[in-house]
Amino acid sequence: MTSPVTTFAPADAAALTSKARGWQRWLALAFSAILLLVILFELREGELDDLVAALPNAVPFYAAFAVSYLALPMFDWLIYRRLWGLPLASLTPLIKKRVANDVMFGYSGEAYFYLWLRERPGLAEAPLRTIKDVSILSALAGNAMTLLLLIWAWPMLTDLTLTMDPRLLLGSGAVVIAISFAILLFGKKIFYLSMPDLRASFGLHMVRSATSTFFLAMAWYFALPDVGIGYWVMFAALRMVINRLPLIPSKDLLFAAAAMVLTDQGSAMGAVVAMSAGLFLAANLLVGILLTGTDFIGRRRR
Fold it and tell me: Which terms are listed as keywords in the entry (predicted)?
């Protein structure tokens, strides 16, 4: 006597798939909860009253700041849309990815984005390897832009010998070049994406880096127009160079020295830069609260 053949209805298959992804949903929910707790802690520790008092009244300042803030998730979306055809709705988890990386720790945002993709089978092909490639390309583009700006700003940086030994600049640049060269040398073993996809993604990362830097300089200019836009662009370039060079100590003091060298309004420039740094934190807190709140509500409805 032959045993009957067991068949599964589509509803049964959907239920099995849902159970198989249950742990990923709970992990994504736990990630959102941790992110929300970190945001609330930062909000408790922050000095929002002082920040609000320092904010300028110029509307163009907020427009330029928004472009600088959203450049990273927007260009990430362009990259992943080219690779996977992601819809515009995927911009939301990419913004949350930026918040997580800024508020929690490096690449925590990539972990969240991977969990978000895993909950949506069929949306992305080889998500872990692709996210890894895009993240490496982002670092390479940042290194390349840093080296270009380092060459452009070298005369200004060598004037800052009172607070920094110029040999540290050379050493830091050598470290950046060595890391980038090592990645390129073993590229065939590291990268999953095809060469056309790698080139396109790298190019978009370079444009993103330039866009974010330029519009941050524009925001500073609108906050303090007495300082020429050329000075602000140079200062934004110096900020990126100093932030990414690994061997530079006392980076805040170096920013202050750069402001004093650039213009006689060094203290005012320092205040604007400090205010914009606080605004980046405030934007992360506000956006993080909104996105995690909607995430909790959406999961509860499901």
Answer: Membrane, Transmembrane, Transmembrane helix
Alpha-carbon gap, residue 294 to 115, rounded angstroms: 17
For 17, how many CA atoms within 13 A lie in the half-sphere containing its CB? 12
Read off the pTM. 0.79
DSSP secondary-structure letter at 263?
-
- The CA-CA-CA angle for residues 281, 31, 38, to 5°, reads 35
Closest among 294, 275, 297 to 286, alpha carbons compared: 294
Q: In terms of residues, how long is the chain? A: 302
> What is the total count of domains within the chain?
1
| Strands annotated E in the chain | none
Inside any domain, residue 7: no
Q: Record the tokens describing residue 70, joined without a space.
A: 């959203």
Examine residue 261 and state whether it is found in any structural domain, yes or no.
Answer: yes
CA-to-CA separations, 115 to 97, 119, 133, 175, 187, in angstroms, rounded: 11, 6, 17, 33, 26
